[in-house]
Amino acid sequence: QVQLVDSGGGLVQAGGSLRLSCAASGRTFSTYAMGWFRQAPGKERDFVAAISRGGGSTNYADSVRGRVTISRDGVKNTVYLQMDSLEPKDTAVYYCAAASKWTGYNRVLVTPLEYDYWGQGTQVTVSS
């Protein structure tokens, strides 16, 4: 089992940057595929970015591709989401997620149902 703590959200002007962090407990961090999702008020939880267990594969939603980078640090047991050129439409609560089911070292998971652990969420607000 793993516990996830999201942080790094805040209020930023359009064009600005934020780096979200997701700290994972436990010694088996490297066995989890990781992802970031976001949910705006009244909308479904949408995929943002994902990284494979080995860290060698990543995937991004079309809406953020080129502006967002996901990475993981096996020493710090942390996943990061670097977000640049933020836009008001990026405003949402961002959630980190971990998937424990073995799917190989290189596969990235893009749907919420594939994840079984979630962080508490961190609010990102982008003003125009």
Describe the protein in words.
- This protein is mostly beta strands and 128 residues long.
- 0% of the residues lie in helices and 46% in strands.
- The chain has strands at residues 4-7, 10-13, 18-24, 33-39, 46-51, 58-60, 68-73, 78-83, 92-99, 117-118, 122-127.
- The strands form 2 sheets. Strands 2, 4, 5, 6, 9, 10 and 11 form a 7-stranded mixed beta sheet that branches. A 4-stranded antiparallel beta sheet has the order 1-3-8-7, with no helix packed on it.
| Number of beta-strand segments | 11
Tell me the major beta sheet: 7 strands, mixed
Beta-strand residue percentage: over 45%
**How much helicity do the residues have?**
under 10%
What is the end-to-end distance? Answer: 40 Å
- Using the CA coordinates, give the radius of gyration: 14 Å
pLDDT < 50 runs, ≥5 residues: none
String of helices and strands: EEEEEEEEEEE
Structural class: mainly beta
